[in-house]
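#structure-requests
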Amino acid sequence: MRALLATLDEQLGRLAGLFALAGAAGILVLLGVTVVAVFWRYVLNAPIFGIEDVSIVTLTVVAAGSVAYGGSKGAHVSINLLTYFWGRRVTRLTDAVMRFAVAAIALLAAYALVTKACGLEKACITSNLAIEHRVFFYVLAAAMGLYGVNVAVHLAIGLAHWNEARDPNEVED
């Protein structure tokens, strides 16, 4: 069982790496868009119509990449004060409760992004160029779903290591 969970965690990490590549590409696109927009606005004195819309949808891809990759690599901020006061006995329980809550919230957010963000029957578009948000919300929903599944796998790994001195996914001090 532990080997299966470790393999699943590794494969989810690889999938998160694909999101990271998409996020990195989004950063490069955003950098290029910003340089071009600043040049056109301040050097040529001719602002580009709709450049803000391109930035908004690109930032959605960047956010998706950071959520998925950061979640799989433990890059999100955490403060581990409970270990100092109560030790592993208490953090076993708090880790399990928090991982369950985070997985549930991330999966709920993914569900909401798919079903409620733009509404199933109406379009959700940017203000100037009418770029539809739905595709970008689906990308963000996939990233949130991946994060939720990743945390659920970390919960299962923590439960598999319940009686050991350390959880493999515990934050290092």
